Amino acid sequence: LQTGSGAWRTASVERVGVESVTVSDGPVGLRKEQDGATLSAVCFPSVAKLACSFDTDTLREAGAALGEQCRAQDVDVLLAPGINIKRDPRCGRNFEYFSEDPYLTAALANAYASGVCSQGVGVCVKHFAGNNQEYGRMVCDSVIDERALREIYLYAFERVVKESAPCSVMCAYNRLNGEYCSENKRLLTDILRNEWGYKGLVMSDWGAVADRVKSIHAGVDLEMPQGETDRLKRALEDGSLSGESLTAAAERVEALARSFDRTARNADSEYQHKLATRLSAETTVLAQNNCKILPLSKTDKIAVIGAFAQYPAFQGGGSSKVNAYKTDNLLDALTRAGVDYCYARGYELDGTTTEELLDEAQSVAASRDKVILVVGDNACTEGEDCATLSLPQGQLQVLDAVTSANSNVVAAVQCGSSVDVSWSHAVKAILIDYYGGEGCGQALCDVIFGDEVPRGRLAETWYSNLPRFAENYAADYRRAVYAESIFVGYRYASTANVSVAFPFGYGLSYGGFTWGEAALSRGEVKSGDKVNVSLTVTNNGKTKDADVVQIYSTNLDGRQFNEKKRLVAFKKVRLKAGESKKVTVQVNVDDLAYYDVDKGRFCVNGGRYLLTVGRHADDAGQVLELTVAGDNDTVDRSGELPSYYNVDENFAPSEEEFVKLYGKELPTVTTAIDVNSPLCELQNTAFGRFAVNRLLKDVPPRNVRSALASPLRAFAANRMSADMLDTLVAILNGGFRQNIFKLYKQNRAYKKLRKRNGKA
Ligand code: BGC
Asked: Per-10-residue mean pLDDT for the chain, 760 residues long?
């Protein structure tokens, strides 16, 4: 029971009536694999886009639809949501994650989980924890100071575990503060179970277990996918593993298996496709709308430029990739809407262009009243980070050509994460579409012509310039030092007072809203209290629309270093055309807390706080003052941590300063050759080079960099047994003569065994 039965199931034990549990990837459509193929399922907008709803109802609705897909395809646990924080916009998996902000992530992830679970399906919250870059993800050590860990990287996990009691949590591939997450007892047992009271199952990410015995000791109940059990048997015999630990793990798998009602249900794919389309339209972010060019009129003569108008970038790559039920595109939607348009491809799907394509795009743009230019990035994928935020060179050339021919350009950006928009002055409007799911073509058409209004608000900062501390992001496969600590996303930008392209929380609307004066229900509070902020919101538009009231706190008196703004509450307000509504947003005083490392818990400083009621993180908004009763016994460490107290555009704390914050020496980077060594470190001997060449034989050139930063053990699956892997390591450590014959013999035995088991 403690290891999978194949890739997507747990083992069953018929004798005692324990059925197997079927798991499958999400997060925006089921990816059930059957007989070597992926079954089709409706592909919803990426989580990055759904998060722009700033709306728990939206996430609940999407979650329920995904739960329904699971029931229809006999899946018990959806391997989602991923709730890692977007530490850097270049993380290859950002499209799967909600936000750079832990509070927003927690609220939306809880809603998503409640939707999935409403269908009797379990969720698996992942990737626990500190998995914020893809490069070297199975080797890299995320070095995070305790305060940032608790306030930023563990915060959403803590809230989801406590509020949604997910049936499973997936531990991440990476190391965290010196130890693999899968071997990290502090993370998986001390914090998750003992502090947070988690009762569910911990499974490993696929192939994240480096040492099964250590991982059981740390708290991994289920290794996925299927692994070998010989080592466990030996460990039981020699006493290094106790029967109790193994039983505890197996019992959690059993408890999970017994927790489902497996009555099959149907998923109505047509209905879900429509839902995916509507959610895509609603979560689109209107980032710029000069001269109110949008919405366009269906009688305008329009040029549509960009290959994505025909082949949309609607989902990212990797384990979340869905075999979409039916993919829409903008051109077909325009045709259905009876719009008069001419189309030019402009660029190829790989982002390159040619003189011919440029000329065609330019002349089509010149011949029409208005241009819809679809650009973006279709390459975001698990396993690789993005090298740059810039659009592909060919698309930038198209942008130049088109904007020089026509001044009425509406750009729609399809992307997994934020991109550089330094070209924004050249276009009139920008619609941020992210990866909009399979209905994105119709959704974009609806938004462009005002049949739906864009209501999205950015769940991440769109930078003009990346912060200085981000210069080394994902440069090292061995160690990622989170020297910026709590200053992530807008928490950095607001504190450093740097201007950004589009701030966190930002999004325009077609009609506009007016906000009345905001008032606090009380001005003096203490930890545990709740305080209400009320104001009247009026929709000035001609159609129903929705605005988002956001509340950011500023801690004025705390002597620890603090971010200038922190989201502590938000509310989506839906209004009919012309309607006014009194809105009350509740702020939980405990959400003003910081993590006190010495006390080992969250504490709310006594003293004054500002609550800014605004439309986004940069909005001066309306400022209300709150006084919190309590101690302010934090220590002023500005003398030893000057960078953290004076955050500006040059903020880039040195490793030396970070070590003081970290409170101890940074974990050492081991250079010993073992099963966890990345391939690139094995090439010092002739045999090492030979072995690495063999292992890389079938790896496509674009994946070689990440493969070289992957551990030797990752290449062992289906190629060698754990014992062979150990022998290989002994050879790589200089024991060629002593071990080569042993390896040969082990290889023969392994091949025989596989043949007997019917595997090639
Ligand atoms: C990913 C997980 C996913 C698993 C199973 C891993 O590579 O990191 O998010 O659930 O594969 O497909």
From this structure: 95 95 96 92 98 98 98 97 98 98 98 97 98 98 98 98 98 98 98 98 97 97 94 95 95 96 88 98 98 97 98 97 96 98 98 98 98 96 95 98 98 98 98 98 98 98 97 95 98 98 98 98 97 98 97 97 98 98 98 97 97 98 97 94 98 98 95 95 93 92 94 90 94 95 95 81
Q: Which runs of consecutive H residues, i.e. helices, occur in 169-265? A: 185, 212-218, 230-238, 243-257
Pocket test for ligand 1, best of 9, 10, 24, 79 (most atoms within 8 A of CB): 79
Which atom of ligand 1 has the smallest separation from the CA of 318? 7
In this structure, are residues 279 and 449 in contact, taking their beta carbons and an 8 Å threshold?
Answer: no
Which tokens sit at 52?
A: 């722009």
Other Cβ atoms within 10 Å of 379 Cβ, number: 18
Give whole-number Cα distances, 537 to 55, 503, 559, 574, 652, in Å. Answer: 17, 21, 36, 10, 40
Which protein residues touch ligand 1 with a CB less than 6 Å away? 25, 79, 126, 205-206, 319
| Pairwise CA distance, residues 760 & 753, whole Å | 10
Nearest-CA residue for atom 8 of ligand 1: 205
pTM of this prediction? 0.98
- The values of phi and psi at residue 366, to 5°, are -70, -25
Round to whole Å and give the CA distance between 486 and 468. 15
Nearest protein CA to atom 4 of ligand 1, as residue: 206
User: Ligand 1 centroid to 181 CA: how many Å?
Assistant: 15
Assess contact for 304 and 334: CB atoms under 8 A.
Answer: yes
Catalytic residue set: 205
Nearest residue to 63 via CA among 223, 275, 235, 372: 275
- Please give the angle made by the CA atoms of 552, 556 and 558, to the nearest 5 degrees: 110
How far is residue 367's CA from residue 633's CA, in Å, rounded to a whole number? 68
429 touches 290 (CB < 8 A) = yes
- Give strand pairing partners of 502: 462
- The residues with which 71 forms a beta bridge, in sequence order, are none
Tell me the two tokens of residue 302: 């329009």
Q: How is residue 685 written in tokens?
A: 């001997």
* Distance of alpha carbon 638 from alpha carbon 642, whole angstroms: 5
